[in-house]
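dumping this here so i dont lose it again. seq + smiles for nicotinamide-adenine-dinucleotide
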Amino acid sequence: MEKIRVGLIGCGGRMGAHMKSFEQMPEVEVAAVADPIAERRENAAKRFGCKRVYADHRELYAAENKNTLDAVLIAVEPTAHDGTEEGAIDRGLPFLVEKPMTLDVKQGRKIAAQIKEKKLITAVGFQDRYLDLMEMVKAEVDKAPKGGLVYGAWVGGIPGPWWWQKKSTCGGQLVEQNIHLLDGLRWLYGEAESVWATCTTGMIHAGQNGVSPLYDTDDHSTVVIRFANHVTATLVSACYSRSVRPNCGLVITLPDMILDYRLRNNLIIRTAEETRDIPRKVDQTLLLDQAFINAVRTGDASGIRSPYEDGLKSLELGFAANESMETEQVIHF
Ligand SMILES: NC(=O)c1ccc[n+]([C@@H]2O[C@H](COP(=O)([O-])OP(=O)(O)OC[C@H]3O[C@@H](n4cnc5c(N)ncnc54)[C@H](O)[C@@H]3O)[C@@H](O)[C@H]2O)c1
């Protein structure tokens, strides 16, 4: 079998997970890598014995094309998408891009339109759509009378990358991190009818207790989303939590069942008769990467659960929630 030649744009934390996948996928050759940080690009190149090493995506695209690569993976910080996807589109290269794919909705819509025109295979890094536990949640929700309450939470501390601590460079915790659960809600319930959100700053102090002097993002936020069929979801995000934390994930109360999905770990299904606790069995990032590479190899994209156009809808819902945080208004769709 001919190997699928991939180029890696951004060799930071998240690309590390994709690199781990590719080490388990003999059908993939990491043929080119790019990152402005020399140590990162060189470590990535060494890991795969890759000889084509570039300082950024511009250098990579100047030298690479459809004759030398079959696909690219893009995992750069949210504000660094200045040509990372457009370069792939211009060269007809399928790409997998990490969420949030941009913080500029106009750029996202333009990219989505170009992808459609070129019929390009794309995937967004919504890894949770490939989780066995989320598949089980979806199967139960699809079987039951749809209505009810959903409570979702992503509560923790402040992640490491510098850009995470500024709302203007990360989009806020909802858009950067809790977008996984936001996307999960869209996967379960379809498009939102309305969103209202509020947020707080002032609990965490920039420059104190190891917090970056740049810190200005929300300490916590709460989003209320109405879906069709009498579903109301409340999604909370927080990064001020330190030594003890509540359960994160989704709690869905159906008329005769409670689905208690513990973020990427286990699913507890409770009925009047029984309680089942099911552990996660899959590596969902590996499944995401396999789905993308398989689509590139066969031309059949049906295994990709979050193409760019769909991922953009989750991102736009996150942007609408941010708008509601600013305006204190309900946003109707
Ligand atoms: N799907 C997931 O579960 C998941 C998990 C973590 C992060 N992410 C997302 O992945 C993205 C990257 O996050 P991260 O944690 O790896 O950040 P990071 O800061 O660790 O890595 C980003 C890398 O991109 C490089 N970069 C910046 N501009 C570039 C350019 N023009 N060309 C090539 N490389 C460039 C940076 O030098 C850096 O090494 C973010 O959007 C983040 O939200 C997704």
